[in-house]
C-alpha cells in the first residue's frame, strides 16, 4: 500500500519534506520510519527522539497504517528539550548531537552508571529500575523544559528502566549553552530534579537479598 510521509525541521533538512512510500499491508508507523531511514540513513541517529503522527494525530510506533495515510515524523518541539525513557542502552552520542548548535560553546555530559558496590560497601549483582511510565514521561519532559527556561541552554536527557547491566548508563544528561557556567548549572538542576521528582525506583540485588530504593538515592 501507499502512504505519504512528511518530515519537519531538522528531519526535513536531513531527508525530504514529503515523499511517497510503498509499505506492506500490515505496516506500522515504525515500518514507515524504517523505510524512510533506508532512503536517508542520516535520519537513523535521531530515531530515539522523534515522534510519529498519523493523519494529523500523534501515533504510537506500533500503530497500524492504512492505504493513503499521511505519516509525519517530528523532532522535539518544546524549546529543543529532548527527554526520553528507554528500556535499552542509552545512546549518549545521540543526546549530544540533539543539543549541538553553533551558538553553544560549552557542552556538559553527565552519565550515571550502574556500579557494583552499594553505598554501604555491599556487592551489587543486579540493578533494576521500576517506572510509572505514564507519569514519568511527562515529569521528565517538564524537568528538561524547566532547565531550558532557567538557563540559555539546550537539554537532552534519557533515563533507562528495567534491568541495567553493571557498567552501563542508567541516566544521561547533556546540556549545551553559550558558556560553561550555564551548562554546568542546568545539568546539575536536571539530575537533582530527577532524584527529587521522577517516579522511578531502583532495586539493588545483593548476594544477601534485595532492597528497594528511590532512583538516585
Shape: globular
- The end-to-end distance, rounded to whole angstroms, is 51 Å
Name the helix and strand elements from N-terminus to C-terminus, one letter apiece. Answer: EHEHEEEEHEEHEEEHEE
Structural class: alpha+beta
In CATH terms, what is the fold-level topology of the largest domain? Aldehyde Oxidoreductase, domain 3
Portion in helices: 25-40%
Description of the molecule:
The structure is a single chain. The protein starts with a strand and ends with a strand. The chain has two domains: 2-74, Ubiquitin-like (UB roll) (Roll), CATH 3.10.20; 82-214, Molybdopterin biosynthesis MoaE subunit (Aldehyde Oxidoreductase, domain 3). By secondary structure, the protein is α+β, with helices and mostly antiparallel strands. Strand 3 (51-54) and strand 4 form a beta hairpin. It has a five-stranded mixed beta sheet with strand order 2-1-5-3-4. A four-stranded mixed beta sheet has the order 6-9-11-7, with helices on both faces. The mean pLDDT is 88. The chain has helices spanning 9-14, 29-39, 92-98, 133-150, 180-197; strands spanning 2-7, 18-22, 51-54, 57-59, 70-74, 82-86, 106-113, 124-131, 154-160, 162-163, 169-177, 200-206, 209-214. Helix 4 runs antiparallel to helix 5 (180-197). The radius of gyration is 19 Å and the shape is globular. It contains five helices and 13 strands.
Throw out a few tags for this protein:
alpha+beta; globular; 4-stranded mixed sheet; Aldehyde Oxidoreductase, domain 3; 35% strand; 5-stranded mixed sheet; Ubiquitin-like (UB roll); 217 residues; 2 domains
